[in-house]
Amino acid sequence: MMKFFTAMRIGVVLVPLAFVASPASAQADGGTIFRQRCQMCHVTTPGARAGLGPNLAGVGGRKAASTDFLYSSALRASNLKWDKATLDKFLQAPAKLVPGTRMAIAIANPADRAAVVNYLVSLRK
């Protein structure tokens, strides 16, 4: 019986340490994070029909709200260009950068956000 309690105590201590030592974001690449968090609304295949959000093929270097999608008036009036710095700010807090945007999902973790930004700018049109 004592061995059982010792094993349980070790398991309870080791499991949380394993999560602290190796967070999922350290192991995931931008494409994986995108598929987990963004793909429900966005597509990345050139020429594919947009979903709930615009098609992000070729987004790097593109002017915001410049594709065939029904963007919010706030994003259309933003005059943003999707470079790495702007994508990073937008994905950190979309409504802070563009008040009135319909984009509601943010990526709080800086490493995850950087990975997604790098993935997005690698997409070709």
Could you explain the architecture of this structure?
The chain is mainly α and 125 residues long. Helix content is 50%, strand content 0%. It has helices at residues 2-21, 24-27, 30-37, 73-76, 84-92, 94-97, 110-122. It is globular, with a radius of gyration of 19 Å.
Helices and strands in order:
Blueprint: H1 2-21, H2 24-27, H3 30-37, H4 73-76, H5 84-92, H6 94-97, H7 110-122
Helix pairs in contact: 3-7, 5-7
Rg value? 19 Å
Give the tally of β-strands.
0
> Beta fraction of the residues?
under 5%
Mean pLDDT: 84
Detail the poorly predicted runs: 4-26
Order of helices and strands: HHHHHHH
**Helix content class:** 40-55%
Distance between the termini: 63 Å
Q: Biggest sheet, open or closed, and with what strands and sense?
A: none
**Which structural class do you get from the secondary structure elements?**
mainly alpha
- Please tell me what the overall shape is: globular
Number of helices: 7
Which key terms come to mind for this protein?
single chain; 125 residues; mainly alpha; 50% helix; 0% strand
Short description:
50% of the residues lie in helices and 0% in strands. With 125 residues, it is mostly helical. The longest helix has 20 residues, at 2-21.
